[in-house]
Amino acid sequence: MNDCIFCKIIAGDIPSKKIYEDELCFAFYDINPLAPMHFLVVPKKHLASAAEVGEEDALLVGHIYAVIAKLAAELGFAEGFRVVTNVGALAGQTVHHLHFHVLAGRELGAFN
Ligand code: 5GP
Ligand code: ZN
Fold first, then answer.
1. Which candidate, 49, 31, 53, 50, places its Cα nearest to that of 40?
2. How far apart (Å, rounded) are the C-alpha atoms in residues 100 and 105?
């Protein structure tokens, strides 16, 4: 997508603090961290949100979770973390390219 900020980050047109990249996904630190560890994992395929995930994306989403588990082990927070994906304005989604927030490094508390 031409005007998508995360597509531009994946392409390197907007700089980011990259953590990991492979043929399917890209991980980078959130510019406005909400926890001591807060990064985003995004598919290279542009999907607007988790509401657009189809059966054809099963391998992609499974792969992203495997990457998250690998990064959690490598970065040393595998004992406790949260994965969040917001869908739509009601859930606070501000960037309309599917992304998984990974949060760790503090007590995260209950949802409300
Ligand atoms: P959402 O609110 O859509 O679930 O999350 C979007 C996230 O993207 C926010 O946590 C926000 O801080 C992050 N973000 C927005 N623009 C940029 C950017 O240009 N670079 C980085 N690294 N993060 C961004
Ligand atoms: Zn995009």
1. 31
2. 17
pLDDT digits (tens, 9 = 90+) for 40-67: 999 999 999 999 999 999 999 999 999 9
Residue at 110 is within a domain: no
Q: Is position 29 within any domain?
A: yes
> What is the Cα Rg of the chain in Å?
14
Judged against a pLDDT cut of 70, whether residue 112 lies above it is answered with no
Predicted confidence band at 1 (pLDDT cuts at 50, 70, 90)? Answer: low
What pLDDT does residue 2 have?
A: 78
How many domains does the chain contain in total? 1
Spell out which residues line ligand 1, taking CB within 6 angstroms. Answer: 5, 14, 16, 28-32, 86, 92-95
Q: Give the pair of three-digit tokens for residue 107.
A: 């007590």
**Residues designated catalytic:** 99
Give the Å distance between the CA of 95 and the centre of ligand 1. Answer: 7
CA of 31 to the centre of ligand 1 (A): 6
